[in-house]
Amino acid sequence: MVKITGSPHPHADNEDRHAREVASMYGLTPKVEVAIRYTIQNQQWNRLRMLVDPLHPADKADFLERISAEDLRILVRQLGPDFDAEILPYLHEEVRENVRDLLDPDVFAASLPELDSDDVVTIAEELAPEQLNEALAALPAQERVLVEQSLAYPEDSAGRMMQREMVVVPPFWTVGQTIDFLRSSELDRGEFYLIMVTDASGHPVGEVRLSKLLCTQRPRRIAEIMDTETRSIPATMDQEEVALLFRRYGMITTGVIDEEGRLVGIITLDDIIDVIDEEAEEDLMALAGVSDASIRTSVLETFQGRAPWLFVNLITAVIASVVIGFFESTIEKVVALAVLMPIVASMGGNAGTQTVTVAVRAIAMREFSPKVAVTFGLRELYVGIANGLIFAVVTAGLSYVWFGDAQIALVLGIAMLVNMVVAAISGTLIPLSLVKLGVDPAIASSVFITTITDVIGFLVFLGLAALYLL
Q1: How many CB atoms are closer than 10 A to CB 129?
Q2: CATH top-level class for 299-468?
Q3: Phi/psi at 174 (5° precision)
Q4: Is the pLDDT assigned to residue 47 strictly greater than 90?
Q5: In degrees rounded to 5, what are phi and psi of residue 12?
Q6: Secondary structure element (H or E) that encloses residue 210, with its range
Q7: In CATH, what is the architecture of 168-287?
Q8: Does residue 191 have a pLDDT over 80?
């Protein structure tokens, strides 16, 4: 039996009360977090529940993600059957897996029916086949069929992220009938903003915003007030394309249709926010060559994810070193070249990365067309020339002050100008070419741009030095 210790000081109870009040209004504040950690360390389980219960599931998930593995084990085991199922969708995939392993299988299975269908699908697609069968068996028959149908769609598609709970009415209903239906005790749809209108075959024919429904007289037909210009999304559409449509048209909710055009679900804005965050994180990680990594990734997984890209970078570095080796005798005679040549390569690499970053974002946002690509390429070329001229003068001046040799300064300035222009051109062409080849530009662009700017920078600088200084 666990002994519940007393308060650490006379004002602890007042502080606990204040912490709970703050938590109910503002979520997981530092003071609340400190209080929760203290109760875990001192095994004050009753007090722990008083602090945790008022928190929003997202705040609870945030706390679980930031505590140690041992504290996570203690907390989840202590909560047991009282574990809030709504926490699961907010957890990072790795933490959710840990929590799932810590929960009793029966408790985990019993928590799934409490979630929306899209959240159940998100969790179900992470399970092993045996675990998936157990989880599906715990769902009501009708919900189990819906989840299985969603899992049949491709990964990262609209069919996987759609919510099956929705309000659907026929066009011949009146506003009064619809409102009475919404008020019926049998209807439990949670939050919704859009009422879908379908024909007898289940094909969407319109939609009615909840605000418009409530502001319309009861005798009017739904067909009279519904918006027929709907933008239904195919269930097989990639989630990134869905996010672009939401952003472009300012949508809050939209229907999802199957291959036969029948309404099978809806997608809401909160799901799209998750997709946007996921895609942005994926591109950011890919640019650095650390995709699928997090602060909780194991040593082995982190090593396996990074080592291949470091090997690729090693090859590019060897290529640049081979170019330098061709001019070994030149460097031996003019030692200043060894000091100055990293400047050319570094400036070109940074300039190229700037262009690549803008280009990759434009590609991800579907902003490029042939005309826009040409305009963008010319703009980057002009910027490259301008930057090249400015930094050629700056670096040449520094070189002259440093070494007092006008010829070296001139060679450095010319090499700087050439490499900045090359960086601008390659920074535009490389991501566009990779897209044509079916390769993700976010992953491969940085490797190519670094190789090109290093090789061209060293080749031009050392080549000009060999021609004019010797």
Answers
A1: 7
A2: mainly alpha
A3: -90, 165
A4: no
A5: -60, -40
A6: helix 210-214
A7: Roll (3.10)
A8: no
Name the 3-class secondary structure at 405.
coil
Which residues does 386 contact at the CB level (< 8 Å), separation at least 6?
Answer: none
Tokens of 325: 């080796």
- The neighbour count for residue 181, using CB atoms within 10 Å, is 14
DSSP symbol at 7: -
pLDDT in tens, 332-364: 878 888 889 899 999 998 999 889 888 888 887
Rounded alpha-carbon distances, angstroms, from residue 262 to 159, 162, 163, 224, 326: 13, 14, 15, 22, 67
Contact 307, 464 (CB under 8 A): no
Distance from C-alpha of 316 to C-alpha of 310, rounded to nearest angstrom: 10
For the chain, the straight-line distance linking the first and the last C-alpha, in angstroms and rounded, comes to 87
Q: CATH 1.25.60.10 in the chain, residues? A: 12-155
Region 440-457: mean pLDDT is 85
> CA-to-CA distance for 45 and 252, rounded, in angstroms?
41
Is the dihedral angle over the CA atoms 342, 348, 352, 354 positive or is it negative? positive
Q: Which of these, 208, 206, 211, 209, lies nearest to 231 by C-alpha position? A: 206
Burial of 318 (0-12, 13-18, 19+ CB in 10 A): exposed
* Residues shown for the chain: 470
Bridge partners, residue 168, by sequence: 196
- Rounded CA-CA distance 56/435 in Å is 42
Strand order in the sheet with 204-209: 168-169, 194-198, 204-209
Q: Which CATH class is domain 12-155?
A: mainly alpha
296 closest CA partner among 70, 95, 71, 75:
95
CB 254 within 8 A of CB 247: no
Structure confidence by residue, pLDDT tens digits, 151-184 = 999 988 999 989 888 899 999 999 999 999 888 8
CA angle in degrees (0–180, nearest 5) for 97-100-106: 155
Instruction: State the pTM of this model.
Output: 0.67
